[in-house]
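Hi C.,

You asked whether I'd gotten around to modeling the 342-residue construct. I have! Everything is below, sequence then structure, no commentary in between.
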Amino acid sequence: MVAAGGSVSSRPQALDMPWLSSALHQALHTMQGHAILVSAPPGAGAFELSLAIAQGWLCHAPSEGRACGQCASCHWVASRSHPDLLCLLPEALQQSLGWRSEEETTGSEEKASKSKPSQEIKVDAVRAAVSFVQTTSSSGRSKVVLIHPAEAMNQVAANALLKTLEEPAGVARFVLSCTAPEALLPTVRSRCQVLPVALPTTEQAHRWLSDRGVSRPDVLLAATGGLPLAARDWADEGMTAALWEGLPQCVMRGDAGPLAAWPVPRWVDALQKLCHDGMCLAVHAPPRFFSAAVVPQGASLQKLSSWARELQRVAKYAEHPWGQPLAVAALLQQARQALQPA
């Protein structure tokens, strides 16, 4: 079990996301299998839902079919220290999801200069999970393995899970979450009950973000492509509606402004969104990520199309350790040229 430091609420976050309530109820009340595959779009809360399902399975005193949030088991889940819960995550996601111990964090800092955190769930981790479910439960209830995102398992790792996923030892249960079920082995999908989850409605997302103190949530929700969790994270990182709406003019001036510290991948993503909206306006279609009032208009569709292809090429290498200021300056220069009125 991987533990994480810090204070965490005993109630799983999924309970604070209204659009996940029906899926959580379905998982805990009507799905009787030992393996559930949560299939959700990116940013819909697949991990939070999966953790709530695991907590519900392990809870000592469930209330109305959900985890009580008060028993010892719920507190162990909240503190990332439950002896009967194993969470498999790629190294690259462990810290952002708060699922890393202080020892691991210290060790990872020492490795940081040597290698990038892996985006995969490797076969050794899956083999450890297989061994984990074969041991006796500490609490006398289920042993639960949570895998997120399941498509991060490489083929060798996925194959190592198959036999245990089909015939688990004792009372072991699995909850897998994924945003790309087609990327999973068919043999993995066939061994799970699929629980589909949709994004919240625009009204639900706006209300949820407003309740969390996000000002003008419609702007950040549009900026993230309708993903409420991403919009919340952006707001927590200091992004505001005014900064996002001011981005096109910063680009036209060749000035990164207050967003100069953005990593190159985020700049590439933002510029791809700006390019997309510029192309929409060029063919008299509504923009998606920015309001029409802030997107430079009159640019040549041919230039925008060429820029879109260049950004797609750069995106493949965006994680490369570029010289940050030079890379951003080059991106802004290309953007200015593409967005100039024809």
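If it helps when you're writing up: The CA atoms of residues 223 and 244 lie 8 Å apart.

Thanks,
B.
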